[in-house]
Amino acid sequence: MGNHYTIEITGNQLTYEQFQSVVYDYRKVQISESAYKKINESRKYVEKLVQEEKTVYGITTGFGKFSDIVIQSEQTAELQSNLIISHACGVGEPLAEETVRGMMLLRINALAKGYSGIKANTLNTLVTLLNHGVHPIIPAQGSLGASGDLAPLAHMCLPLLGLGEVFYQGMRQPTNQILKTLAIPTVTLDAKEGLALINGTQMMTSLGIQSVLSARNLLFTADILAAMTVEALEGIPKAYYSKLHQVRGQVGQITTAANMMNLLEGSALTTEQGEKRVQDAYSLRCVPQVHGASKDAYHYVSHILEREMNAATDNPLIFSEEDQVVSGGNFHGQPIALAVDFLSIAMAEMANISERRIERLVNPQLSGLPAFLTKRGGLHSGYMILQYTAASLVSENKTLAHPASVDSIPSSANQEDHVSMGSIGARKCLSIMGNVLHVLAIEYVCAAQALEFASKLPGKGAQVAYNLLREKLTPLESDREGYLDIEIAKQLIQSGELVNRVQSHTNIKL
């Protein structure tokens, strides 16, 4: 665990880089003084409403369909704790600890904005749990994505009350034992606090941000591996001529074409139009158009999630300076639901086109190379079955990429009659990222093996990528367990080592 500096939380300036450092590198966080000021002002306003016995949703009333039932002031604490306990009804496997850390960070950031009416002490306890690496057990299933991720966030908040279970130092343990060990006191929730904690989009947003971070790496990787395959198949780089792409004007396409030319620079393997063939197949020739469209989708989704990262998403929201409490629907996950569905489709396409390039590498009728990239075909199968695995993953992605956001089921006695299903879409999106990673790993293995049969040197990008893999994986001479080859390539991609190494030698961009 690294912790070189503490990240200050203001509610307004959280970045992808900070998210990554807190979630994956265990950086600690602290609330800024300016945020505390707003938090305290908002809290005082809530207490004033309770004293005046004003009828305000979620503060002096029940929730959802029970919003018409007025709660007496002496029952407000019980109301809030009951909310957490009753809503903690998720099912399924626990979310990964990274996802849970992301949820905690995002909820802390949203509450730090000062529109939620939470007590500073309650928020500080959530910060303490995050900083100590105490991660609530949160079942993955049970959210409709409006009124936000209610069930998952309720599970996230159980430890504040000393309830539920947590992961701590890699072990699943009862919350009360860990709080006692770490001398972390439980909290008593007062008016509005339970609602402030569980109304929001933090599960789907945490998953979505993880997918965006993964997609960034995979989009760079796809260009690098496409260039390797073009080299191995003696492709025609004229298709990446800059003017061809500029006259269409699509930004991602223009960027990808420039990347391909950079990666292929200095190649002795690529050919001219008509030298070996007049045109390449689409999976080579249309790399800028296909990869570029996915890059454009990535940038759109990245902006949506960056906004949501710093959003106030509970209900009602407190505007104390204007003497207003406004009940609305900022918890509705529709912006995230549509975005993650779009990213799912865009990234599934990266695996689709990669698998077609893999087929061209291993199929002798398409490549002119030894069948399945082995010199001893028949006795040896070479990389025949790697393409099967890629095809299986691509087919699975086609099912996973079906949009979750086109569905809606009414809840809370039809009071909440349109929901986003954003958490389902976000979970599927992250699964797709894992499948794309493995397909690209297979292309990496196959493209490097195909280059073993080349009589000339590839361009600088392919050469750097080839050299990196060969530091860990020898050329295929005899059949061996294919999963080991895939795992080595996967680690080089997933760690960012491939992209970093190639970027240090080329000028590729996203």
TrEMBL record:
<comment type="pathway">
    <text>Amino-acid degradation; L-histidine degradation into L-glutamate; N-formimidoyl-L-glutamate from L-histidine: step 1/3.</text>
</comment>
<keyword id="KW-0456">Lyase</keyword>
<dbReference type="InterPro" id="IPR024083">
    <property type="entry name" value="Fumarase/histidase_N"/>
</dbReference>
<dbReference type="GO" id="GO:0005737">
    <property type="term" value="C:cytoplasm"/>
</dbReference>
<dbReference type="Pfam" id="PF00221">
    <property type="entry name" value="Lyase_aromatic"/>
</dbReference>
<comment type="similarity">
    <text>Belongs to the PAL/histidase family.</text>
</comment>
<dbReference type="InterPro" id="IPR005921">
    <property type="entry name" value="HutH"/>
</dbReference>
<keyword id="KW-0369">Histidine metabolism</keyword>
<protein>
    <recommendedName>
        <fullName>Histidine ammonia-lyase</fullName>
        <ecNumber>4.3.1.3</ecNumber>
    </recommendedName>
</protein>
<dbReference type="InterPro" id="IPR022313">
    <property type="entry name" value="Phe/His_NH3-lyase_AS"/>
</dbReference>
<dbReference type="InterPro" id="IPR008948">
    <property type="entry name" value="L-Aspartase-like"/>
</dbReference>
<dbReference type="GO" id="GO:0004397">
    <property type="term" value="F:histidine ammonia-lyase activity"/>
</dbReference>
<dbReference type="InterPro" id="IPR001106">
    <property type="entry name" value="Aromatic_Lyase"/>
</dbReference>
<feature type="cross-link" description="5-imidazolinone (Ala-Gly)">
    <location>
        <begin position="146"/>
        <end position="148"/>
    </location>
</feature>
<dbReference type="GO" id="GO:0006548">
    <property type="term" value="P:L-histidine catabolic process"/>
</dbReference>
<feature type="modified residue" description="2,3-didehydroalanine (Ser)">
    <location>
        <position position="147"/>
    </location>
</feature>
<keyword id="KW-0963">Cytoplasm</keyword>
